[in-house]
Design brief:
Cytochrome p450, alpha+beta, monooxygenase, globular, 8% strand, 47% helix, 5-stranded mixed β-sheet
């Protein structure tokens, strides 16, 4: 029996190409048993409508102590400690009601000039250092962490600490339980002190705003909820956006006509970003598992109550039932923004306006200032990051 259950994530022939198993399972076995890095088994769901149902139907809850473990650490890599009150049920709905006004597209757009200034400074440094360069190190990693530090009012000199905590907390197989525990404790202590400081002396940052939020119905965010909020901002806002910047550049330069199209028409920046988000196959391969709250039928497959299911969003984003000619890169695609990269339903990513803004700023800046950008070694040299829940690429070496 154990030999017949494939190991997940699946291997792939090239970093930017999805594993062939996704398409095969989508057609023949849309709910398939797989073995996770922890050794536990779960059921992988690959079709768009089914994945969206997992994300939106209240009969599927998000993880929990009885879910299959993802990572090799004792806690299973669910990084949900001290956050159950804001990730489940009414507590989650209350948390989102309190935070949502601070994460509207309009509010995030107000950050565009600051993000642009940070991006320009990093590109200045990139050009000064000269070709070739690792775009992940020079731009992808530092920009989002600078943005997060600015958002929460953390000193710029602490950026490296934030980046370290993020990588360790998102471990799949790279770090021990002790290392993960230490990262959580250090991060929580740091943010706890930051929250106290912002409550006492508010600034013009987002954390200061969140400490002052008070609602007649929902009250205010507790100290613990604020820490959990900053942690969510770090893990989603830094690590995933950092990886996506590198993925975006690699995906466009792997087929240079995609990059050239944006050079020729900068108005394609938003549509290009959406197609990158839809077609990326490296980032959200595992994600948050769901647990069936009752016996259910998914795509004709009986799923027992208590079963752990993995909603494979990148496979769903390539489902021909939803996206015509799904493998084609089309910045003019009408429904590209219906991808599930940011999730759907009650857990739809609050920070997606900021993530989109950062990607748009980076792409617009690069095509304007580095029209001769190219992959130094070709797409075949790209390698996947392994051992972390956030996936992505190891390095993206570019030249110009």
């Amino acid at each position: 029996m154990t030999e017949s259950v494939p190991t997940y994530p699946f291997d792939r022939e090239e970093a930017l190409r999805p594993p062939r198993e996704w398409g095969e399972l989508q057609e023949k076995c849309p709910v398939a048993h797989v073995r996770l890095p922890s050794g536990d088994t779960a059921q992988l769901v690959t079709r768009y409508d089914d994945v969206r149902a997992l994300l939106t139907d209240p009969r599927f809850r998000r993880g929990g102590q009885d879910a299959a473990r993802i990572a090799t650490t004792q806690d299973g890599g669910l990084f949900a400690r001290n956050t159950m009150t804001i990730t489940q049920g009414e507590g989650h709905r209350r948390w989102r009601r309190l935070l949502s006004p601070s994460f509207t597209i309009r509010r995030m757009e107000a950050w565009r000039p600051r993000v642009q200034a940070m991006c320009d400074e990093l590109v200045d440094d990139l050009l000064a250092a000269g070709s070739p360069a690792d775009l992940s190190v020079r731009l992808g990693l530092p920009l989002p962490v600078r943005v997060i530090c600015a958002l929460v009012g953390a000193p710029a000199e602490d950026q490296d600490r934030f980046a370290h905590w993020s990588r360790v907390m998102l471990t799949l197989t790279r770090h021990t339980q002790e290392e993960v525990q230490q990262a959580y404790e250090e991060f929580d202590a740091y943010v706890s002190a930051l929250v106290d400081a912002r409550r006492a002396e508010p600034g013009d940052d987002l954390l200061s705003e969140l400490t002052q939020i008070s609602d007649s119905e929902d009250g205010r965010l507790s100290h613990e909820e604020l820490i959990a909020t900053v942690r969510a901002l770090l893990l989603a806002g830094h690590e995933t956006t950092s990886n996506m910047i590198a993925i975006m550049v690699a995906m466009l330069l792997a087929e240079p006509e995609r990059y050239q199209a944006v050079i020729d028409d900068p108005g394609l920046v938003p549509g290009t970003v959406e197609e990158v988000l839809r077609l990326d196959s490296t980032l959200s391969v595992v994600g948050f598992p769901r647990v069936a709250g009752e016996d259910l039928d998914i795509a004709g497959v009986k799923v027992a109550a208590g079963s752990t299911l993995i909603p494979c969003r990148p496979a769903a984003n390539r489902d021909p039932r939803k996206f015509a000619d799904p493998e084609r890169f089309d910045p003019h695609r009408d429904n590209a923004n219906q991808h599930l990269t940011f999730g759907a339903g009650p857990h739809y990513c609050l920070g997606q306006p900021l993530a989109r803004l950062e990607l748009q700023v980076v792409l617009g800046t690069l095509v304007r200032r580095l029209p001769g950008l190219r992959l130094r070694d070709g797409a075949e040299a790209l390698r996947l990051r392994t051992g972390l829940l956030s996936g992505g690429l190891e390095n993206v070496w570019v030249a110009w």
